[in-house]
């Protein structure tokens, strides 16, 4: 008897906004920009590409193009997509000893 192998899609398990937020947080901490874009695509599939495109203010075709495997979306697009998932991009110092009160 042959074993049946079913495909696994993490998008099927991202059921709540909190699931998606935790998934994206892990993505940004564990991988580079390509990994984050890949994970944004998964999150968009989980939430529904049409709804995500509408909330981000882009066309569905543009969303697919921005999130395909070889995409290099603009930072503005990434920020809009993160906003759809109630997330934002923040910058924090790597070295905790940096004086944040000094001018640039």
What would a concise description of this structure say?
This protein has helices spanning 17-30, 33-47, 49-56, 60-67, 75-84.
What's the shape? globular
Helix and strand content put the structural class at mainly alpha
Pick out the low-confidence regions.
none
- Mean of all residue-level pLDDT scores: 91
- How many strands? 0
> From N to C, what is the helix and strand string?
HHHHH
- Which range does the strand content fall in? under 5%
List the helices and strands and how they pair.
Elements: H1 17-30, H2 33-47, H3 49-56, H4 60-67, H5 75-84
Helix pairs in contact: 1-2, 3-4, 3-5
Description:
The chain has a domain at 15-84. The mean pLDDT is 91. The chain is mainly α. The chain has five helices and no strands. The termini are far apart.
Summary keywords:
5 helices; 53% helix; mainly alpha; 104 residues
